[in-house]
Write a structure and sequence with these properties.
The chain is an alpha/beta fold. Helix 10 packs parallel to helix 11 (313-329). It contains eleven helices and 14 strands. The structure holds S-adenosylmethionine. The site of S-adenosylmethionine has 20 residues, from helix 8.
Length: 357
Amino acid sequence: MVMDITSRALAYCRPGFEKDLAAELSLRCGKAGIVSQPRFTPGGGFVLHEIDAPEDEVKRHLHFDKLVFARQLVWAKAWLADLPEKDRLTPILAAIARLPGRFGRVWAETADTNDAKTLSSFLKRFMPHLERALAEGRRLVDNKPELPTLHLFFIDSSKLWIGTSEPADSSPWPMGLARLRMPREAPSRSTLKLADAFMSLLTEDERKSALRAGLRVVDLGAAPGGWTWQFANRGLLVTAVDNGPMADSVLQTGLVEHVRADGFVWKPKKPVEWMVCDMVEQPSRVAQLVADWIAAGRCRRSIFNLKLPMKKRHEELERARNLIYKRMSISDREWVLRFKHLYHDREEITGYLAAVK
Ligand code: SAM
């Protein structure tokens, strides 16, 4: 097929998930009747999606929030190769000069691979020069968070893509990575997954209203208590369901009740705000459980992990999504469903399902 490439989406992902991201990008474009072609190297940590439609049109169909495997979504504008070692700045500034408008921030980025990480000291030295030149030319302005972000995505020190993203339709973090500090008192590293989910899957308003002290939470598969800790630390009251032991540091908060029971069977006596689920189980079984809780009004919101099989991640995700759609469509509730492959997820993805009325 002959394509007239009129726009390019550059999407970053965890290395090894390029095929899944490419499948999503193709599916979204295909559904909108747009011809496109993904280009990627397995393990490369990004997909360049070549598209036979103008950027403005594609942007109506391709949204960062809807892409599960994308850590970031950039609209690539210029490719530079063979940058001279002695003066990389001049050609980069010349390429940026051809882009319209001003920018709220400029980020030097690479793929999240070991090879690309070797560029970090070069980028630390190079970027202040670029930032100064852009600020002097009034292309980079402070205190305008609504302006587009300028991305310099380096493949190596002589090759890069230059692109832009809209703050309202992209990740707010460089390289799309929410780097969170491990809280000393939390009993397991998976605490970071839930902290990341709060940041990445909930809006600011949702965080404000749903993470208030005194609200009730059921944590299915809670031990040793990293997720429970995230809630207790904010003053929410948690019923932690697991046959395994909970860490003392979590129980000592006085906000946690430990119930030794099967998470697929146990139910609360009264409706709660949250049910979260980190039980390692078949994705379709977890999806069904979560949808049942929300549809029955047992909880208002849920964050849950789906452990995807390596060879069929995209298919398994769509299966879980369809199960939830089917269950929710026979309930009388309005609802939202979001998924993201978070920085702190490995072979799993994280979902958020909530009743909105
Ligand atoms: N979210 C936890 C944290 O942050 O510390 C880690 C959870 S760990 C990945 C999975 C837990 O699910 C295990 O403690 C296991 O005992 C529990 N689990 C698995 N199947 C379960 C079931 N049917 N009912 C209750 N707990 C279950």
